Amino acid sequence: MTFKSIDYSGPVGKSLVRKSGREKVTGAATFTAENQTERMLHAVAVTSNIARGKIKSIDTRAAKNLPGVRAILLPDNVPSFKRIKTFNDSGMKHSLASNVFPAAETEIFYAGQYVAAVIADTFETARDAALLVKVTYDTQSHVTNIDNAPANERPESLMGAPAVITKGEDAQHAWQASTVKVDADYRLYGNHHNPIEPHATIAHFGKKNGKPFLTVYDTTQSLAPGQATYAALFDLAPEQVQVICPYVGGAFGSKGAMWPQSVLACLCAKLVDAPVKLVATRQQMYGGTGHRSPFRQRVALGADKDGNIQSIIHSGIASTSRKDVYNEAFTMATRMMYSTESLHLEQSRCRLDTQLPTFMRAPPETPGLYALEATVDELATELAMDPIELRIKNEPEVDQHTGKPFSSRLLVDCLRQGAERFGWRNRSAKPRSQKDGHWLIGMGVASATYPHNVFPTQVDVTLNENGTADIACCTQELGTGTRTAQSQLTADMLGLPIKKVNMRLGDTALPPGGISGGSATTASVGGAIRNAVEKLKEQLLTLAQQQDEFKNASLDDIHFVQGAVTDGQTRLPMEDLLEQAGKPNLTARGSFKGPEEQKYSAHSYGATFVEVAVDEALGLVRVRRMLGCYACGTILNARTGRSQFIGGMVMGLGHALQEATHWDHRYGRITNDNLAEYHIPVNADVPDIDVMWIDTPDFNASPIGAKGIGEIGITGVAAAVSNAIYNATGKRLRQLPMTPEMVMG
C-alpha cells in the first residue's frame, strides 16, 4: 500500500523546542517514583545471591522486629494471581518479561531474583529490614559463561523469520570458490541499559464504580500492553486497570517489557491493602530488568576480483535464560544489506543461569551490523578497494530475503553525501600512514540500518471552538519529544499554529497506543493522527455544506489553511464554523495499524563516519569526530530528530569502547553492577558529532512519510570505530568493547 503524499508547509520539519523542556528543567515534570498517594507504604526487594538452586528457609525474625515494618512478602503468603505466559510466547499480548514470578518461587534461576520483599512506613525502614532477612539455599551448579554453555538449541523463529535462511547455491562452497575471501569471528560482551531513571512502580488496589480497580504508576514504554498484563495477572477486565506514565527518564528498551519489580509492587499492595511504592536500586537493575545478551558470531564474505560479493555467511550464538526465551536476531540486517549470489544465515542459542535478555537499543542490528560491517571493511582491504565503493557496488535492487522492492533506500546517497561532508577524500587507505604527534590517525565508515515498524494505535483529535486542537493518545514520552513532534504534525495538517495544539499522553484512560519501542512511535501515532484529521475533514465538510458558499464543495476541495476551512475561494475560520453549527468542539478518533500485507521492504538507512586517534603505547583510543548521514523519511522536528541521532551515536561509542558486563562465573554474579565500574560515555568521551539527513518523505512506508530514527544512530558506530582503528594501526579488533589491552596487543 502506498499512502497519498502530503505537502508539508507548516511546522513539520522546523527546529522547535520540545514542549516538555520547561517542565523538566524546572522540576515540574513528575516521574514515576515522584508520585505521591495517601497512606503510601514502601517496599524493598530481597534478592538471591546464588545463580541456581532452591530456597531452604527464610528467617524474617530480625526484620519483623524493626519498628515501622508492616509486612514481609514471602513465597508462603503471596496473594493469589494468575501465572500467565510471557510476551515471548504470546506475540506481545502481554508485556510480562518473565515466567519467574517475584517472591512466589522457591527455585532460583539467576542471581538477583526477587525472593521476598519488606513493606514498611518509610523507604529507609524497608531497606534496613530487607538487609536483615536471611535466606539459606540448596545450591546447584550453574553456567553464566556463554563459552561454557552448549549451543544446542535452534530458535523456532527470529522476529518472524526462520533461524536458518539460505539463498542460491551452497554458500560455503561458493565462498571457497571465491577469488577473494575473508572469514572472521567476533566476540561481544553483554551490556546493560543504565537509564538515569531507575525502574519504579506504585500500585494500589481500590474500588471504582463498585468494582475492584488497580491503579499503577509505572516506568514503562508499554502502557497499553501493561494494562492488559496487569488485568490478566489479577483477573480483572482491562477497564479495571489504569496505568499512568507521562514521563520516562530513559529506557533504551529496558522498559519495553514488564519486569518483576512491577509485579512485586502489586503483590505487596494486595498483601497490605494499601498503596505501595517500589523502586529498583541500581544494583537490582543489573539483575532484574534485562540486558543485551553476549554474542559469538562468524561472518565470511567471498567476492570476485572486481568486488562483486558472491557469498555471505553470517552465523553465531546468542544466550537466553534457563526459564524463558528471548532470541536476538543478529543476522536480521544481513539478509537484505548487500547483493549476493549465495547467502547463508544461521543462529543457535544457549541457556544461561541469568535473567532473561531483552531489547536494547536497536537489538539485532547493533551486534549484527558490527560483525557484518567490520568484515565488509576487511574485504575492501583485501580487494584494495575503497570501502564506500565496495558497498555501493553491491547495492541490491530488491530485498534479497523477501524479493520485495524497497519503500525507499537512499543508502548510496547517505554514503556519498556523508563522505563529501566528512572529507573522506583526505583519508589514506594505507594503515599507519597518518599521524598527529605520537597519535596514529584513522578514518572508518559503516552502513547503518533499522527496520520500519508500526504498532496498532488510536488517537483522538479534537477541534475546539476557541480555535485550538487537542490530541489524546495512550503513548509515552521517552524524552524524545513525542508531544512536540505530533503537535507539529497535527498543526501542519490542520493549518494551525503550533502553539494552538496540545497533546495528552501517558495514561491508559486515553485511546490505546502501541509500545514506544522499535522506533515505531512517530509513524504509528502519526498514522492515527492523519486518519483522525481525514475524519475531521469529513465532519467539517458536512458543517461547511450548510453554508451557501460551500454548498457544492467536495471533500477534495476542502483544505485547512491558517486555522480556516477553505475551498480555494471562500475562507471560513474553523471556530466560526463550529459556532454557527452550535458545537463546542468536534472529535474524531483515528486509528492506524499498518497495511495488512506490506508490499515493500521498509527500513531506515544511514552511513556512519568516524575519525580516531590511537596511542598504541597506552592503548588509548580517542574518537575525534563523527558524522552520521541518515535517510529516514520525513523528520517532523529537526531539533529533536538531531538529538535522537546523536543519542544513538553516543550510545554506540559506549558499545564500541567501554560498555561490558563482567561476571564472576564462579558465583554467577555480576561484578560491576554500578555506574562507577560499568563504564558509559561521559561528556569528555563525546567528540565533535555532526548529523545530516536526506529529507525525502517515504509515503510507501507510512502515511506521514516518516520512518524510525530512535535506534538507527547506534547501529553503524561500533563497526565504524573498529574500521577507523584498523586504518590508524593496521590491527583488526574483533571483540567489543575494544579495550586498551586489545589495542596494545
Give a topology summary.
Layout: H1 21-25, E1 41-47, E2 53-59, H2 61-64, E3 69-73, E4 107-108, E5 114-120, H3 123-132, E6 134-139, E7 164-167, H4 171-177, E8 180-188, E9 200-208, E10 211-218, H5 223-233, E11 241-244, H6 260-272, E12 276-279, H7 284-288, E13 295-303, E14 309-321, H8 334-337, E15 342-352, H9 365-383, H10 387-393, H11 411-422, E16 435-436, E17 439-451, E18 457-464, E19 469-472, H12 482-494, E20 501-504, H13 521-544, E21 559-561, E22 564-566, E23 571-573, H14 574-581, E24 585-592, E25 603-615, E26 620-631, H15 638-657, E27 663-664, E28 669-670, E29 688-693, H16 712-715, H17 717-729, E30 735-736, H18 740-744
Parallel strand pairs: 1-12, 8-30, 10-11, 14-15, 19-20, 26-29
Antiparallel strand pairs: 1-5, 2-4, 2-6, 3-5, 7-15, 8-13, 9-10, 9-12, 13-14, 16-17, 17-25, 18-19, 18-24, 21-22, 22-23, 25-26, 27-28
Helix pairs in contact: 9-17, 12-13, 15-17
Strand content: 25-35%
Query: What is the C-alpha radius of gyration, as a whole number of Å?
Result: 27 Å
Mean pLDDT over the full residue set? 95
Residue ranges: pLDDT <50 for 5 or more in a row?
A: none
Largest sheet: 7 strands, mixed
Instruction: Kindly report the spatial arrangement of strands forming the biggest sheet.
Output: 3-5-1-12-9-10-11
Derived structural class: alpha+beta
